[in-house]
């Protein structure tokens, strides 16, 4: 994309550690206001890619333009325009959530009102007077995102912000990330949760062994698989031979618990099942990004 509104342009970046090619020829661009996910299993090269874009690491070769500028070596003109999520260890000791934010705000010359607004945005207003070490993991992640946003940057970088959170805390954080995007921010984040990226991201780059294997909106990647929909029923609800000849059914198989019918035309199949009154325990599963990963690499996705 040579779009003039590209917030980030990455061209053929490479980084090796000894013999290990951590990033092996990665190129992509991110548009302003986009929610862009860099996905992949452990060691895929996500963090290294992110750090090169942020200007924290120098690539061995290749080019990065961040808001039209070169981020490396440290580019002071860019710092007010980018927000990088801090690891929890980067908080100031013994300060409350509000004081942490006010301190970061002061460092950037931003007024305290903005700090309070950020506490609201990340849903921590009630914890304003709680010391950072007393916050839960999810609350601490939200505080670190608020700190990264306090100077109102254009681009927010987050490295696995939902790692190690329980499912409810993850979902709460998704709401925060959506609210940030609604404010027009560009978000670039890494995750190894493919389900989450499918829900949140406008586009995803799927990485493995230092390379980008696919880059597109999640729905396009999934559609591109042309994978069948799997409709499952409780075993015993319907005979397998009857299932195979239902309208729309391509095939059927059984295991101990369920009967699964594969179809590329779910609508007539679901109508046929409804007509027979055999919807007990019905589950419909369409392809996911995990299926995309399997198709790209030939192996199951293991975060
Ligand atoms: N400073 C370093 N020195 C040596 N090897 C490194 C260094 N940083 C990363 N690596 C290696 O480079 C590869 C890519 O690491 P990177 O952290 O970018 O992957 P990742 O996709 O972010 O993984 P994770 O999900 O586990 O954080 C890994 O094999 C890692 O062990």
Automatic annotation (TrEMBL):
Q: Could you state one GO cellular component term attached to this entry?
A: plasma membrane
An example GO biological process term is: response to antibiotic
Q: How does it sit in the membrane?
A: Peripheral membrane protein
Q: Which InterPro entries match?
A: AAA+_ATPase, ABC_transporter-like_ATP-bd, ABC_transporter-like_CS, ABC_transporter_ATP-binding, P-loop_NTPase
Q: Could you tell me the keywords of this UniProt record?
A: Antibiotic resistance, ATP-binding, Cell membrane, Membrane, Nucleotide-binding, Translocase, Transport
In this chain the ABC transporter domain maps to 8-234
Q: Which GO terms describe its molecular function?
A: ATP binding; ATP hydrolysis activity
- Where does this one sit in the cell? Cell membrane
User: What PROSITE patterns does the record point to?
Assistant: ABC_TRANSPORTER_1 (PS00211), ABC_TRANSPORTER_2 (PS50893)
Q: What's the superkingdom here?
A: Bacteria
Q: Give a yes or no for keyword Transport in this entry.
A: yes
Major localisation = membrane
User: Member of which family?
Assistant: Belongs to the ABC transporter superfamily.
- What name is this protein filed under? ABC transporter ATP-binding protein
Species = Actinokineospora fastidiosa
